[in-house]
Amino acid sequence: MATIFDPVTVGDLSLQNRFAMAPLTRNRSPGAKPTELSVTYYTQRATAGMLITEATAISHQGQGYADVPGLYGAEQLAAWRTVTDAVHEAGGKIVTQLWHVGRISHDSLQPGGGKPVAPSALRAKSKTYLISADGTGSFAETSEPRALKREELPGIVADYHRASKAAVEEAGFDGVEIHAANGYLVDQFLRSGSNHRTDEYGGSIENRARFLFEVVEAVVSAAGAGRVGIRLSPVTPANDASDPDPQPLFDYVASKLAAYGLAYIHVIEGATGGDREFQQGGKPFDYAQFKAAYRDAGGKGAWIVNNGYDQKLAEEAIESGRADLVAFGKLFIANPDLVRRFEEGLPLNAPQKETFYGGGAKGLIDYPFAA
Ligand code: 8OZ
Fold this sequence. Notes:
The chain is α/β, with parallel strands linked by helices. The protein has helices at 36-44, 74-89, 153-169, 185-190, 205-208, 210-223, 246-257, 287-296, 311-319, 330-334, 338-344, and strands spanning 8-10, 13-15, 19-21, 50-57, 94-99, 117-118, 127-131, 137-141, 146-147, 175-179, 228-232, 264-268, 302-306, 325-328. The chain has a single domain (8-355), classed as TIM Barrel (Alpha-Beta Barrel), CATH 3.20.20.70. The chain has 11 helices and 14 strands. Helix 3 packs parallel to helix 6 and helix 7 (246-257) packs parallel to helix 8. 2-Phenylacrylic acid (8OZ) is lined by residues 25, 55, 65, 182, 238, 272.
């Protein structure tokens, strides 16, 4: 029986344990460049088997919040290189999360102040986070998007390819994770609430999943399948994501993902950061069936679970074989040495919400290590 402290192979990566640090947006990268603070923050957490960076925009158009990092531009990639070098020096592994927000953005963050893009011109009932010139942060309603033209899609897929290649070849990442969760662009295509297209990217499940598989193909060809993971959130209502019938949609996605030889599938169970039992469409989502759809189709990637896991639930997930790794978010924000705290039964620091988004060192790198 494996324990959460045992090493594990995830695609091409050999990990020291089965703890993943979940991707966590921190809004501390002005000019889309991670800083010296980011180097310290990630390096402090390098005892996790795998660090997944905060969501990182593949292009300027893919940015939806103030001061989030990017994977476009030489300076941004060089800044990430300082992070990955330090994490590797500390014995850790780090993958970056590839992000295009689609409609979850604001005109003021878009190239030329234009409208954010989306599968359909449907405004999300959601908020984004802006930082004004004097440094004060505030939440603002997301802007009205425009519908992407069919002929624009290959350009976005090409951005995923370019960003993935740069991430592994220039920025020094061990791999990349496609952010297909939480109501951002890929998820906007998947779900009928945000996708009203009438071309081959809308309507049937196969059509709504078409963009996802084009992205997967591009990213795999850039980084190699053994260095690619994908994050999905079958029922989350985050960012106004909605679909009346998520089970057949996500079972289809899981079964078709099997063919790509990905390193891992990362699943947010329930409402992101909230109720694990959250439902869409009036019936509970069957995660075992979703996983079986992947395995039965020959999918060999590691299965990572996330959302509200404490030590007991995480150990149960690993020891029962329900999951291969567990991703922890808030627990890793507050406990850089989470692995040791679990191993030795040490008490945990409590995460401070007020410092999650924006600001500086406080709440980022000053959570104490256990004595
Ligand atoms: C919290 C705040 C801003 C962005 C996600 C990237 O939900 C995010 C995010 C979370 O995946």
